[in-house]
Design goal:
- By secondary structure, the protein is an alpha/beta fold.
- The chain has 24 helices and 10 strands.
- Strands 6-7-8-3-9-10 form a 6-stranded mixed β-sheet, sandwiched between helices. Strands 2-1-4-5 form a 4-stranded antiparallel β-sheet, covered by helices on one side.
Length: 627
């Protein structure tokens, strides 16, 4: 549909300039105030599980440094006691304690993993639903200016990208921190001189870690941007419409090339993200792994100098503690890097959650009363002026000071040149957009004073571009009324002149229509859409060029169904083919955003104005086509 005028139904591919603008927007990571506090608030509903997790982590971390201390006792009191040969009873007791600690730690680890995985995935799932729910509340203009692939990327790639952070961060940070602290204390208790040797280069490692984290955060932002582009390409080209387009213009190779180029960029970014910091971690691993050898050397030097009474058990226990400190320390550094990397993803998620819908219910908004009130009241435009949100300020309004009244139960048609603004009328009645000036009255009430859900519940819309889900005919019909019975489905289908066609299918109402209904003809899809609206049974019916894309035979069948659907309802028909509205109670002629004529078909022909000219042109075109 044209967003700055009326009737067209085409959808354009995003231009190169738009794509570059989107890339620039994604590359500039949004700044979200109090980001860490907002992330922590995601876990507010899981306090008990988190408390248990914290206790398990603390116990597990504390237990992790017990075996090295027992190792010291095993060496000094069991294997090599001062009294002479090995003390087997003492050694057996210490070994038994070590095994008990290992078994207890393993069981606690299983419990802790289950808790963190459960909490993390529940938080991630709730975040995804929260984001989806918020997007459902956004106004129509948000979706017309945002690529579907970008929205899908926020829901899938961004939320999925922080999953590991949500599931592992708490246990990793707490467990590794406690383990490192406990190991450090144990090392001090064993020998303070060796502890200084082991920890002397830690500040250098911390500084290097921060620099690596900043690099990885930048790469992560570019990676998510590339994923958004790949999702958009997939959505555009692998939909039925996209496949038809590429095959029609033999552009499959070009589309493959476009996807392959972005895939190569994604591979490069993923490799860069994986490799960023690997040299740093390799140096850290080499350094920490070489500490035992250095400890042996320093211990020998201290023993020769007589400045320490270190025992073999102390040396073995110290190197064991130091080795146990290696992985938690690396884990803390990796968590810090992951947090820096994921901050961009969290910021992108919260950026969407912070979007404010342009159209919301007023605090004092009311619901429409009993059914039938709207049909009795009609629809009125009172000096309405409207310009689409993304239109330049200097451009003319799409609708400029438009006023009209559609009487209760009346069939009103809006006709005019393409881009005149007639489709916009159909957007303003259900308040899909907000007027810039004037009022739209629905049932005698300003639509801004009504709850939008209540307003839309009284309106049925049949558009030119029929949308059917990849589901059965029955499921598509029940989208309007989930509790509808089979008899109600059949009644709606009969009224829409589609029941006989459905009955001829082998699976009848259980026939799967295919993506966007591509297993059906245009006329069949349109009549199913009409049946769906009839099942809703609205008081006001909006027909937005519902037959303009059909051939002459399908148009006659669908038009008969529309005539049945509009009977007894207030009907607003946006028409391109004037032959479909010659019987309308009133015809409004829209040109350049204004109502330039109105009246019946006969009255407008008699005036010999814009309508008469348009009608004459269409009659001439039809005659030439028939010849």
């Amino acid at each position: 549909m044209s967003m700055h005028g009326g009737g067209g139904g085409g959808r354009n591919r995003v231009s190169g300039a738009d794509r570059q603008a989107q890339k620039a927007q994604n590359a500039a990571a949004p700044r979200i105030p109090h980001l860490l506090r907002r992330i922590s608030e995601l876990f507010a509903g899981h306090k008990v599980a988190l408390a248990i997790t914290v206790v398990l982590v603390l116990i597990g971390a504390a237990l992790s440094v017990v075996p090295p201390l027992l190792t010291q006792r095993a060496f000094d009191e069991g294997l090599f006691p001062p009294s002479g040969g090995p003390n087997l009873p003492r050694l057996a007791t210490l070994v038994g304690l070590m095994l008990a600690v290992y078994i207890g730690s393993a069981l606690l680890g299983v419990w802790q993993t289950w808790l963190t995985a459960t909490v993390g995935n529940k938080v991630m799932g709730a975040l995804r639903v929260r984001l989806f729910t918020h997007l459902q509340s956004m106004e129509l203009s948000f979706f017309t200016r945002t690529k579907t692939g970008v929205i899908q990327s926020r829901l899938q790639n961004d939320v999925g990208g922080v999953a590991s952070v949500l599931t592992n961060t708490i246990s990793s940070v707490l467990g590794n921190t406690v383990t490192v602290i406990a190991a450090f204390v144990a090392m001090l208790l064993l020998n303070w001189q060796l502890t200084i040797v082991a920890l002397i280069l830690m500040p250098i490692l911390v500084i290097a870690q921060r620099r690596v984290g900043q690099v990885r955060a930048r790469i992560a932002t570019k990676t998510q941007e590339s994923l958004s582009d790949m999702t958009a390409i997939t959505q555009e080209t692998l939909s039925v419409s996209g496949i038809l387009l590429s095959k029609s213009f033999t552009r499959q190779k070009a589309e493959i090339g476009r996807y392959a180029d972005e895939n190569a960029n994604q591979i490069r970014l993923q490799v860069s993200q994986q490799m960023s910091g690997q040299t740093f971690f390799a140096l850290v691993s080499i350094f920490l792994s070489s500490i035992p050898a250095i400890v042996y050397l320093v211990a020998g030097w201290l023993l020769l100098g007589g400045t320490t009474d270190v025992t073999p058990g102390t040396i073995v226990a110290f190197t064991t503690v130091q080795a146990r400190m290696l992985f938690p320390l690396l884990g803390l550094m990796r968590v810090a890097l992951d947090l820096q990397t994921s901050s961009a993803l969290f910021a992108r998620i919260f950026e969407y959650l912070d979007l404010q819908p342009a159209i919301t219910d007023r605090p004092d908004a009311v619901a429409l009363a009993a059914e039938g009130q709207v049909a009795r009241a009609g629809v009125t435009f009172d000096h309405v002026t409207f310009r689409y949100p993304d239109a330049p300020e200097e451009s003319r309004p799409t609708l400029d000071d438009v006023s009209f009244r559609i009487e209760p139960g009346q069939f009103a048609a809006f006709v005019g040149p393409s881009g005149a603004g007639k489709t916009t009328v159909s957007y303003l009645v259900p308040r899909f957009y907000e007027v810039a000036a004037g009022r739209v009255l629905f049932g005698g009430i300003d639509v801004r004073d009504l709850k939008q859900e209540s307003l839309v519940s009284h309106i049925g819309i049949v558009s030119q571009e029929t949308y059917l889900f990849h589901a059965t005919i029955a499921e598509n019909l029940r989208y309007a009324k989930p509790e509808a019975t089979d008899a109600e489905l059949e009644a709606a289908a009969r009224a829409a002149n589609i029941h006989q066609t459905i009955a001829s299918f082998p699976e009848q109402y259980q026939t799967v229509v295919g993506e966007r209904g591509y297993r059906l003809s245009g006329g069949e899809k349109q009549r199913i859409a009409i049946a769906r609206v009839l099942l809703k049974d609205p008081e006001v019916l909006i027909l937005d060029e519902a037959t303009s894309a059909l051939d002459a035979i399908s148009e006659r069948v669908v038009q008969a169904a529309l005539d049945t659907a509009s009977r007894g309802r207030t009907t607003i028909a946006i028409a391109h083919r004037l032959s479909t509205v010659v019987g309308a109670d009133v015809i409004f002629v829209v040109d350049a955003g204004r109502i330039v004529e109105h009246g019946t078909h006969a009255e407008l022909l008699e005036r010999d104005g814009t309508y008469a000219r348009l009608y004459s042109e269409q009659v001439t075109s039809s005659s030439l086509a028939a010849e």
